Amino acid sequence: MLAPREEKALYAYGVTRTAAGLDPLVLQHPVYGQAAAALLGLRLLHAGDHEACVRHLQSAIHAPEPVETNLFVLKYLPGFSFTLEIAGGVSVRLPLTNAALTLALAEGLQSLGRGPEAIQYIEQLEPTLPALLSLTELYSDRRDWEEVLRLTDGVNVDSDVTALLAILRSQAHLELGHRVAAEECLEPVTENRGLSRNVRFKALVLRSNIHLAEHEYGPAVADLEKILAEDSQIPGIREAIARFRKISQDKVEAEPVPAKRTGGRAAGFYPDPEGVAPFRYWDGEAWTSRVRMTQL
Fold it and tell me: Under DSSP, is residue 65 helix (H, G, I), strand (E, B) or coil?
């Protein structure tokens, strides 16, 4: 009853949520303004208003003291936490602290295409798995694959967060042409039933793409069929399987039938049916490992 007007307004907005909006005067208050900016910024992030979200979260973070020491937070929100989606559908539950607000701010900045600024904020945080995942995704968006590999080196897969780090590491290896290493990164993810289906499915799709890059259509289809066996409602999976099978069949039908020595193709160099080199040697019965750049 005796609380200041601004405190009552913030309590109704941030604690009981009986107020749909926040009185702008609360944001200007020397005590309640920081907590108000933090709560409003988080709601705006959830609502997709990233410009306003970034503005209010920056105000809360750059206050003289951390938000976790704010008198309103200590009095009314000691156990407050919020869910933040960091990357690839992976969400974490975070307390109301400056570090957590910084992660939320980075998401807002990333949505606005301000990745370098988001990186600067995250790199100032203490190293935690949520911060590492946020930073790794930001560098992945910039296609800085060497930095992605540096950040994810030595990470063990034991949660959705670390599994997504392994997926980002695999993607970096794939982009750099390290296909064997890319596939190895996914091994602890694809078979771990303790992980969420969303994360495992991401790993299976990526591994399927790795097989496609090697023209291994059977294994590529097998990975997609694993997803289909768990969830037949995911759009596009059946179509992708049918497309890969057709590509494989067309490839088989396009391969030349080896001629027999009697009455067949004479021994010599011919256009390589596998496309490894311009010309490959046919010994009269089978293709050999001898290749040439010209037919002479």
Answer: coil
